[in-house]
Amino acid sequence: MTETSKLQLPEDRSLEIAGRVYQSRLLVGTGKYRDLMETGHAIEASGAEIVTVAVRRTNLGQNPDEPNLLDVISPERYTILPNTAGCYTAKDAVRTCKLARELLNGHDLVKLEVLGEEKTLYPNMTETLVAAEELIRDGFKVMVYCSDDPLLAKRLEEMGCIAIMPLGAPIGSGLGIQNRYNIRLIVENASVPVLVDAGVGTASDATIAMELGCDGVLMNTAIAQAKDPIKMANAMRLAIEAGREAYLAGRMPKKLYASASSPIDGTFF
Amino acid sequence: MQVQVNGDAMELPAGATIATLIDKMALGGKRLAVEVNEDIVPRSRHPEFTLNDGDRVEVVHAIGGG
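Output (structure tokens, whole complex):
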């Protein structure tokens, strides 16, 4: 390999979020598992270091001795990333983040998502921009779930969001990366980490996101709703690593026609 | 007096604090956060924060989510 082609390889930047370097580029959710034990085992198998949680009312009729999610996914071991899932307005999202910060003793890293409608759970970007601005002003470190519009992604970065997280496809759909071109444009323009959040269905989807140069992938349903979530968590860990390595290796150019792999010289027929 | 806790009415003695409420809900020592009339009340203030009739209280915790 010549020096020139080496220089053209993508830079192997480590994943740094809010001043902390992470070895794993797979971020996982904790929803939709059969029970907390399965949640714990799947997360262990995924190798994830950043784990999302939701903030909800305590159930008045709940058994007080029931284990709490944060007893299984301990904040001492994992970086807890509270989300604002279920919020349809900037106001509700900001309230949720403030409750999360109190819940986690001042931990100010949040995943902002403001939804637009129930059918697609597509992000409401006008409300997302309003919420992001208010949260950043209040000192939160905002990782933002957003549409795959490169201009809006850049705007969120310029506002001070610390990670941009465009959807690959609707939340829980498992459809895979629907617009590779946009994801690639977002990655190319960004100087903060870009993570595909939502839409991954199976391992190859995660690999594609990483081959496009994403800094990581956040997923929940693809693991939790697999027939064997623990096996799928392991598959996702490998898929993320494979995609990252392929991105760093620099893939061969696509060609329209064949190019023989065995030499023509020396044939005896 | 009556307060709204997580959307449901609850009777509490006059002068009850957030700490009283948490004990009544058997949530003492749990990781949770409390909001009264949409304002956060930090954990350190739970023992002294007196609730008033008609207050809307939210008591939340972390659950599974993506």
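Strands of chain A lie at 15-17, 20-22, 26-28, 50-57, 79-82, 109-112, 141-146, 163-166, 195-197, 216-219.
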